[in-house]
Amino acid sequence: MSIEIRNVNKHFGTFQALSDVNLDIASGELLALLGPSGCGKTTLLRIIAGLETPDTGSIHFSGEDTTDVHVRERNVGFVFQHYALFRHMSVFENVAFGLRVKPRGQRPSDAQIKQKVTDLLKLVQLDWLADRYPSQLSGGQRQRIALARALAVEPQVLLLDEPFGALDAKVRKELRRWLRRLHDELHVTSIFVTHDQEEALEVADRVVLMNKGVVEQSGSPQDVWDHPASPFVYGFLGDVNLFHGRAHEGLLHLDGVAIHTPEHADAQNAQAFAYVRPHDLDVQRYTPGASGIVATLSRAIVVGPIARLELLPVENNQPAGHDPLIEAQIPAQQFRELGFKEGETLVVSPRKARVFLQPQAS
Amino acid sequence: MNQNNIRTAQRGTTEAPWVRYALTGIALVFMFLFLVLPLAAVATEALRKGWDAYAEALREPDAWSAIRLTFITALVAVPLNLVFGVAAAWCIAKYEFKGKSFLTTLIDLPFSVSPVVAGLIYVLVFGAQGWFGPWLAEHDIKIVFAVPGIILATIFVTFPFIARELIPLMQAQGNDEEQAAQVLGATGWQTFWYVTLPNIKWGLIYGVILCNARAMGEFGAVSVVSGHIRGQTNTMPLHVEILYNEYQSVAAFAVASLLALLALVTLAIKSVAEWRMESELKALAELPPERPTPARGATAGIAN
């Protein structure tokens, strides 16, 4: 089932949680709403579910206006961040709940309920836990039971609020893969909220980046990673170094180095800044006259295959409030071959950068 | 070396034996002096002239009517407060609205007001010289110095017990489970009946027990509105006072022993409730935490 979100606004007191959000979600898509905390992603999810009502704007399920349809009637599956399992009910009863509360006419028989619940518990691989209570389950097990419970009513849409947020790193990774495979099997339109860019990029078909109540960018994981639409997206998707300089006729001039920026070919001596990923920085030993930013190696962290270098520029002309530290990543192998020592003077030059013009104040 | 370490660790977390024994001893002596001894005194005084005199004192018509009135009062006040208490706790714990803290304070009011004042309020409002006095007299409705007044005063005094017991419990539980139930298609009533109520069951039982004990034992407020008409508007606590003032100590203590018995029954119910809950939890905790079969590897693939 497809979902259209049209001009949705939502305030909480004076705080604008969502401003004029428009989004189309295709049928069978697995979509990630990604953003920092407070960006409105959970509010949007709850509005889609019907747990919140938008101040203005509308929600359409398969083209039909669902804005005023009660949450009970929307037939959505919702997995809460902390699962919200019914603590006094066994796992079996938790999953059966959605079937048991159906109006008498639509309610399946006890045998059908038992069959359905058993099937779902098998699907989430926890059929052996049917008689347990939620307090006796691990976090990952609770998560999967919450999912089985949501699927029991055969929802048209599956909504997951920070589905892996409360789990430890290893379980999270397992469940991520598992959710992806489950989606490939069931093909139910699914939306999940996360603040973890790795999670969103790995699991989703499409990532919607949100910031301060606004959709910043929406696209496939590869697309948003390769072509971030705004400085926010670039910064949110991974570690970045920020350099300030001047853009002039297709070149960004930093101190000691110039970067090609063909997209700003007609910029005339404009204030600009460049975002550079740590692995897009070349690091060499300092030789007089070398082009690049001269910096001292203040710390090198070499654990595993990547060496992470923290460098302090010798001439620090960053505007106040910016961290002057430059982070570079080079293969550990290369680091060992070059034999850098902490305290040494090096030259850093960006191989690739994303340049944004400073919005003109005047 | 290792043993030494363990010993110091123990010393750090527990007191010396004599401190423990002294503290336990003081607590026991206190309990004996202030709880056990008075209860024993009530029992011995009541039975001083033997079982027959005891039974006679309870069978006496005025005593019997006081017992009946007490039970009727509790039977009306407790269910009403059950409904009010759950409703008040529900809206305070699960919703955000303006004036919420004011409502919370209002619920506590009966705790902070002297029961005598509570009684006087009803006399002032419903009494012959009160606001509604003339109107009530016209329609031949008696509230003050009659059973309705006693019930009203009891409801007022016992109002906070159930709500107070439930509010922190419901606040701690939040409303995630209720929302989950709604998303799954449950109606408001189904949500309350299948999700909210089972979660607050033990708190509710405890609140009802406390509320009932106070409803039966209330003296001050009831004393003001009752008018002390023997055989008609006397509850058990009022009857005890009258008998005591008339130097009928055996009869007084006989009725008092019933109230004391009520306290013991209350305690027993509470202990049983707590014990049941604990054994339930213990039975759950003994289940194995992991899948019992060795088919761990088989779980890696997704069942179809």
Write the layout of secondary structure elements.
The complex is a heterodimer of chains A (362) and B (304).
Chain A: E1 3-12, E2 15-25, E3 30-34, H1 41-49, E4 56-61, E5 64-65, E6 76-79, H2 91-100, H3 110-123, H4 139-152, E7 157-161, H5 169-186, E8 189-194, H6 197-203, E9 206-211, E10 214-219, H7 221-226, H8 231-237, E11 241-248, E12 251-254, E13 257-260, E14 270-276, E15 281-285, E16 293-303, E17 306-313, E18 326-331, H9 332-338, E19 345-350, E20 354-357
Parallel strand pairs in A: 3-8, 3-9, 6-7, 7-8
Antiparallel strand pairs in A: 1-2, 1-4, 4-5, 9-10, 11-12, 11-14, 12-13, 14-20, 15-19, 16-17, 16-19, 17-18
Helix pairs in contact in A: 2-3, 2-4, 3-4
Chain B: H1 2-13, H2 17-46, H3 50-59, H4 61-94, H5 100-112, H6 115-126, H7 133-138, H8 147-173, H9 176-183, H10 188-217, H11 220-226, H12 236-245, H13 249-285
What is the quaternary state of this protein? heterodimer
Structure class of chain A: alpha+beta
- The string of secondary-structure elements of chain B, in order, is HHHHHHHHHHHHH
Largest sheet of chain B: none
Residue windows where pLDDT falls under 50 for at least 5 positions of chain B: 291-304
Please tell me what the overall shape of chain A is: elongated
Task: State the helix count of chain A.
Answer: 9
Radius of gyration of chain B, whole Å: 26 Å
The helix content of chain B is over 70%
Structural class of chain B: mainly alpha
First-residue to last-residue Cα separation of chain A: 47 Å
Q: Which pair of protein chains has the largest interface, and what are the residue counts? A: A-B, 39 and 28 residues
The fraction of residues in strands of chain B falls at under 5%
Number of E strands of chain B: 0
- Residues in helix, % of chain A: 25-40%
Distance between the termini of chain B: 58 Å
Q: Mean pLDDT score of chain A, rounded?
A: 87
Radius of gyration of chain A: 25 Å
The largest sheet of chain A is: 6 strands, mixed
Q: What is the H/E string of chain A? A: EEEHEEEHHHEHEHEEHHEEEEEEEEHEE
The dominant shape of chain B is globular
